[in-house]
């Protein structure tokens, strides 16, 4: 057991981290404006999408329920941009109100430092950033998949692709599996004229599976009337097996195959796991590899803009939004976000110039806004 003095000292050290009434009050003050800002920014997106839905229904003759469903599946990707904006707006407005009504001054007079006031908002900002990262990697790819299916099958009426599609998967022991298909029927989630080639660690052909179609039954694919050819090391065929149905894991979902082939130059539409898979398995040119690497790093940095915006807006709100109201806070939030994303775009371009620059450029906007936020917080603490 710890001595009494040590336990008391430990409690004293942990005292600043204890959730207090002040923490709950500051979070409550922040939550209202943040939720309002999120709803307002989302409403802007919804209004613009109403026009798009109307165009799809009137000009493209898309059933209205399909158009609405397509719009809903587009929402998760948009939320990735709304969340940091809502955090910024909520911090600006809540700190502006507390400062305008002299509550910040009263807290400082009571011995509460600005750093201690910032702590609960910092925890919320970090938690929201982690949530955004999970949303980006888990929900958004699935939503984009469904939106792609609706766009290709129900909206654009695209028939199965005629261009060759391919996927490469690493096998245990150093071998690899190459899947080649003549086309993808997005509406049926079916690959057409599929061939799977399996190579051993020495790149000798070990097995070939041929089927006229393979349907995606998560998490694997079901090959119909598949013929499996087995080969010896010298390339001689040693056996043939015909299976009415055969489950094969080709390592990718239908949309991953389609997106990599049809949108190879736009990694923004891919998740980090999909980008990593493309960097490992896909044949990319040097410019593509640099762009994919820069985007891979940027997609890790961007969700943490929620925390960075809280740090940046905390001292700024006390100085600039005092008495300005929601309209000024809304406008200032838009201006800050615009500047941030301009810098982010420039950083992505710089990161695409050379592989060593990818990580540095990806985190540069967050670092810049964090440094400015810390400087403003230091100045505000000195007043």
Structure report:
Helix 2 packs parallel to helix 5 (114-155). The protein has a domain at 16-155 and 298-382. 62% of the residues lie in helices and 16% in strands. The protein has helices spanning 4-14, 21-58, 64-100, 103-109, 114-155, 254-262, 272-281, 286-301, 305-320, 325-351, 357-382, and strands at residues 165-170, 176-185, 190-199, 205-217, 220-231, 237-248. The radius of gyration is 27 Å and the shape is elongated. 34% of the residues are buried. Mean pLDDT is 82; it is low at 158-163. With 383 residues, the chain is α+β, with helices and mostly antiparallel strands.
Element layout with pairings:
Elements: H1 4-14, H2 21-58, H3 64-100, H4 103-109, H5 114-155, E1 165-170, E2 176-185, E3 190-199, E4 205-217, E5 220-231, E6 237-248, H6 254-262, H7 272-281, H8 286-301, H9 305-320, H10 325-351, H11 357-382
Antiparallel strand pairs: 1-2, 2-3, 3-4, 4-5, 5-6
Notable traits:
383 residues, alpha+beta, 6-stranded antiparallel beta sheet, 6 strands
Strand and helix order:
HHHHHEEEEEEHHHHHH
Structural class of the secondary elements?
A: alpha+beta
The N- to C-terminal Cα distance equals: 45 Å
**Helix proportion range:** 55-70%
Strand order of the largest sheet: 1-2-3-4-5-6
What would the average pLDDT be, to the nearest integer?
82
**Which shape, going by the Cα principal axes?**
elongated
Number of helices: 11
What's the oligomerization state? single chain
Report the sheet with the most strands, covering strand number, pairing sense and barrel closure.
6 strands, antiparallel
- Estimate the strand proportion: 15-25%
Radius of gyration over C-alpha positions, nearest whole angstrom:
27 Å
Could you tell me the number of beta strands? 6
Low-confidence stretches: 158-163
